[in-house]
Amino acid sequence: MKNFTVKIRIFLWLILAGVTGWLLYMAAAPSGKISYVADFTKSSYFIGKLTPEERLMPIEGEMPLSRVIIGDPVYFSLRTARRFDKAKLTLKYRQSEDAPPIIEAGVLADKIIWRYDLQPIENKIIGRLAYVWDVKNENGLILLQRNDSASTTLYGSIEDFLNKPPQNSEIALYNRDLNMEYLLRDYKKSAENQPTVPAVRGAYQFYTYIKDEDLDFTFDFIDINKNKDSDPIDLNLYYGNQIIDTRHLDDDGIANDSGKESATRRLSLKAANLPEGVYKVELRANDDVITEEITTKQSKLSFAAKIRLAGAGAKNIGLFTDSNEISAQTVNPGSLQKIKIGDNELDINQTYKQFNIETGQGVKEIKLEKDDVILAGDGVFGFSEEALINPAFKKVDGKLDINSVNYILAKYEMPAEENGWKIAQAEFDLSGAYREQGRYNFLISIPGLRADDEIKDWVEVREIKIELEGTTLLKRIKNTFTNQN
């Protein structure tokens, strides 16, 4: 009996050692390559569960074979014991007929401004047009050309299209940039400082325009010290997709969450002899940083996609936007209000909840009774109609008016199908991705999918597979000794 007990213990220890060894191998990936799979029949140590639960169909009974997404977006984490260079995500899914047309996946690239590197999973708009428009496929790019109009020039190749493209207004893009000049024919520079921008909180990006003038901005900042993190400030100036100038401020030196406001600090961003065109200014800072004032003579200043009005006590604020869909949110009970957007009204009656409204084409005025509100949209926001400038090409999304374009250029591959399920892949560069506590953070985005509407649309995910690639363990060890020497 005693020998039998000893054998059982040895057997159990061997099992434990085997499991531990397997986990260590899976975590360390000595070959530099490893893959993880989550199929929802059991929990995965490496791939976290989809969250938040309120954007998923409730589970009834036993562990499901899949998870059904009913709200956008959902998140999951990937646990790794080391960094990797590349990731290939494979998604096995199906969707309701009335589900939104676009599914994308992304990895968190920058936590400060919460920027995700988004890659396409499926774009049903491109899929449908591929049946009726002229299609060219070259090196991972797809060019769709309207072929039902005698006035539309059909290009023989994508190379011909890129060498001599049509006017910007005829083109829509998806997952592909197109470097074309954006020039304003009737632009007039201003001789006076523009109206002061109300206080703005956290990170932002805005567009401006330069022609026969110097670029000249002055920013006044305070640090409200509500978190313990360091609060450095970085200003970047872009022309095209290239940074051409930078400015930096270190943290204010208050290393606690006392809530004590810092003194006002100032950064100037000036540049002369710039070519005519659109420039982008990016502020990289966390939510402890308030931009109290932006002073400039530039007549164009439009915040891209999102703006957070600081809780500085401003009243009766007016903005303008060209966004077709707008969302609003506040974390401050004192900022609950009804926001007027053109002829529409958006009732912000709960904190932390995001409220959405579709406003259609064209420029609309937004009127707020008070500040401390986060506004987001698919266009730009400015504090006067004249200040609006949006150099972005039309996007192939659920809001695109197909009749307004003749060409679509995309970096995109159609998903495959297998036994009623779709299978799509997205590849990510992890070299610059954000990683914290051994985890990469991913999302699945389905713009327009809402858990709180009356539409019974959904996307059902059957399997998530992630293949990772990086340096081998041997090479990592060699690099460690090389660096020490």
Molecular structure report:
This protein has 485 residues and is mostly beta strands. The protein folds into four domains: 2-28 and 475-484; 34-118 and 422-470, Jelly Rolls, CATH 2.60.120; 131-178 and 397-411, no CATH class; 200-382, no CATH class. It is built from four helices and 32 strands. It has helices at residues 2-28, 124-129, 158-163, 473-484, and strands at 33-38, 67-69, 74-79, 86-95, 102-110, 115-123, 134-138, 141-145, 171-174, 200-201, 204-210, 215-223, 233-239, 242-249, 265-271, 277-284, 289-296, 302-308, 315-321, 325-329, 337-341, 344-348, 355-358, 364-370, 374-382, 394-395, 407-411, 416-418, 421-429, 435-436, 439-445, 459-469. Strands 11, 13, 14, 16, 18, 19, 20, 21, 22, 23, 24 and 25 form a twelve-stranded antiparallel beta sheet that branches. Strands 1, 2, 4, 28, 29 and 32 form a six-stranded antiparallel beta sheet that branches. Strands 3, 5, 6, 30 and 31 form a five-stranded antiparallel beta sheet that branches. Strand 28 and strand 29 (421-429) form a beta hairpin.
Total helical elements: 4
Total of domains: 4
Secondary structure class reads mainly beta
The value of Rg in angstroms is 26 Å
- Termini separation (Å)? 58 Å
Helix content: 10-25%
Number of strands: 32
Relevant terms:
single chain, 485 residues, mainly beta, Jelly Rolls, 4 domains, 6-stranded antiparallel sheet, 32 strands, 11% helix, 41% strand
What order do the helices and strands come in, and which of them pair?
Blueprint: H1 2-28, E1 33-38, E2 67-69, E3 74-79, E4 86-95, E5 102-110, E6 115-123, H2 124-129, E7 134-138, E8 141-145, H3 158-163, E9 171-174, E10 200-201, E11 204-210, E12 215-223, E13 233-239, E14 242-249, E15 265-271, E16 277-284, E17 289-296, E18 302-308, E19 315-321, E20 325-329, E21 337-341, E22 344-348, E23 355-358, E24 364-370, E25 374-382, E26 394-395, E27 407-411, E28 416-418, E29 421-429, E30 435-436, E31 439-445, E32 459-469, H4 473-484
Parallel strand pairs: 9-26, 9-27
Antiparallel strand pairs: 1-32, 2-32, 3-31, 4-29, 4-32, 5-6, 5-31, 7-8, 8-27, 10-17, 11-16, 11-18, 12-15, 12-17, 13-14, 13-16, 18-25, 19-24, 19-25, 20-23, 20-25, 21-22, 21-24, 28-29, 30-31
